[in-house]
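Intended use. Records like the one below are meant for learning the mapping from a protein sequence to its folded structure. Do not use them to infer anything beyond what is encoded.
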Amino acid sequence: MTLIVSVVLALLAFTSVASGSVLKNIQAKQKVEDIGGFVMFRKLDGRKLEYLLLEKKSEPGDWSPPKGHIEDTEIPVNAAYRETREETGLLPQHYRPYFGLEDYFEYETSDDVLKKVTLWPAELLDATRPIVISPESRDYKWADTTETLRIIKKQYKQAYVNLVAALECEINLTSC
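Structure written out for the chain above:
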């Protein structure tokens, strides 16, 4: 009887360990996409901030900052520079990133892709510089904080809240 109990317990333990391994293997196969981008802003009248948002052509109503997939040989900040150039026509000399105010977050898409996003605020140095959107985008707009938080892709809202608070403190628009 003791041998039967031992065998059953061993089988239960093996099944538990095996199913845990299977679960880990399934999770390990989830597609992961690393993303880098800039939360581009401009100052109007020295105090008012507006944020650049791009609307995806493939998903009307999907507004987000210039950002995109990190290529195999890139680090996140290089992807942010490349994607900003590709999606807006802005070159690095047109803006100043605030690298100390980075925000990182993750979310899963409806098709089970884990997106790992790193964003930095970047100030457009000439508030009148034209934006030239890529064919990936349907439209762009400059929006104040309230409108940005109303229309931004929901997965990006908390990052914007974090970055706006840190940014306004950094550039002395609010007391910290």
